[in-house]
Amino acid sequence: MEKDSRCPCNSGESYESCCGRYHQGFNDPNTPAWPGTAVALMRSRFSAFALGLPEFLLATWHPDTRPAELELDEAIVWQDLDIIRTEAGGPFDSNGIVEFEAHYRLLNQSNSQHEVSDFVREGGRWYYLDGDD
Ligand SMILES: [Zn+2]
Asked: Fewer CB within 10 Å, N or C, the chain?
């Protein structure tokens, strides 16, 4: 993806200044970057689904709930993200909740996934824990 393209998470920012720096920096010891809030992590995970970056999704998944491996369904085209509500999830919180609706197309049909996701912060890093529909 071009660095100056619109970020897939629909923030209105460029990819580079939004989710791209986390996708680049999450495992880069020279220029490390990790989302500082639960909602920033949520956005960067949506963008990782949209761009097909399973390594980033696994790295930001809490070890307690992380699947052993992750195969992304290439038939799903993630299109848009609406953040509906957030609770806590700031740089000094240890837990956070993000409610969202993620829009996608599958077999030429528009669909969406609504979820209330739980995030935890450990060792200074936010992780996705789990979610309810
Ligand atoms: Zn973004």
From this structure: C
Mean pLDDT across 95-110: 97
Distance, CA 44 to ligand 1 centroid (Å)?
A: 6
Rounded percentage of the chain residues whose pLDDT exceeds 70: 100
Q: Which residues pair with 76 in a beta bridge?
A: 106
- Under CATH, what is the fold of the domain 16-132? Nuclear Transport Factor 2; Chain: A, (3.10.450)
Return the higher-pLDDT residue of 2 and 84. Answer: 84
Ligand 1 centre from 126 Cα, in Å?
Answer: 16
Determine the distance separating the centroid of ligand 1 and the alpha carbon of 40, expressed in angstroms. 8
The helix/strand/coil state of 80 is: strand
Distance 73 CA to ligand 1 centre (A): 21
In angstroms, rounded to a whole number, what is the distance separating the alpha carbons of residues 15 and 4? 6
**Contact of 51 with 76, CB cutoff 8 Å:** no
The answer to whether 109 and 122 are in contact (CB under 8 A) is: no
